[in-house]
Structures are given as C-alpha cells and as structure tokens.
Amino acid sequence: MEYHLQTPLRIKDIEKLNAGDIVYISGEILTARDEAHARILEMKEKGEKLPFSLEGAVIYHCGPLMQQTKTGWRVVSAGPTSSGRMSKMTPPLLKAHEVRAIIGKGGMKSVSKTMKGKSAYLAYTGGCAALAAELIKEVKTVHWHDLGMPEAVWVLRVEEFGPLIVGIDAKGKDIFAEVRGKAEKVLEGLQK
Hints:
fumarase, 6 helices, globular
C-alpha cells in the first residue's frame, strides 16, 4: 500500500501502516542525531521544556549540510544517516514523547517492542541527499546550533518526502530483524 501523510501525525495514521508499505510525508519534520537525542533525554530528566514539540512529530535521522543566505537557510544536502546509533536512546525518547515516526537508514535494533502501538520506522534510501534536499521546501528554524550544523535540530517543511518504506510498523513487525535473522542462518550454514 501507499500512503501520503500530513504532520503532525496521529496514532491512527501510524496504526494503518504495515511493514513494507510506501509512505510520503508532507508538513514539518525535525532532524535529530546522537547529540540532539542526548540533549532531549537530558532535558526530560531535568524536567526542562523543549524549545520544540515532539508530540505527533516525525524525527529524521539526518545531519544536513546547510548554507546561510541573506533570507535564512538553504538546504544543500540532507540524506539520511544510519539509525542504529540512536537505537539505545530511542526507547526512552518514545516513552517520554509522542514521536509518531522516525526516518532513517539501516534500521534500528531492539526498538520494535517500544514502537508497538506508538510509532513507526520509515527507511529512506542512502545516497539520496540531493533528492531529499529538493523535497525540503523550507527551513523553518534551527535549535541547538551550538551542537554544530549536523547535530542541531532543524525544523523543515517538506512536501511528499519519500518514498519511505515502513521498516518497523506499530504492530511490531521489523523487516530489518527478519533480514538479519536470515543472514545469520546463512552465515551459520557457511561456517559448518
């Protein structure tokens, strides 16, 4: 199936997605990598309010390359980064906030149970940085620029951002885990 979703996402938007479906996102998405995840969790622990909302949000694992112009920021490159690095921080993030989708590449280990009934992982093809930049229509703002350009939280307005493949659905099905399991069996057979 193919879905065209508008942010902020609601739980009913996520519940209808199945692993393997194609999704296009329009609206606002936020970039966040390792440092941003760590700061979000630290602020939650301290009871501090975030300068942006994560309720119904889509987080894009991306370290964009931006150019400052006279009128603001322009996206030069915005391909996905490997999501595996954020795997340990994702369960507490999803428990603390109603993030409805995460976009990245390569899948995430041990998050399907946490995502169940709450969120979905949407895989974006690596090497598509120029295409992604074209689909970003506006850089709305930037938070935590002190972390550096790739680690800052960029709030982006996108139109038909994708195609994204549902890699982990809200029912707990993880296509990456299935592939890893098959690969491990092949390797075991080769080692015998």
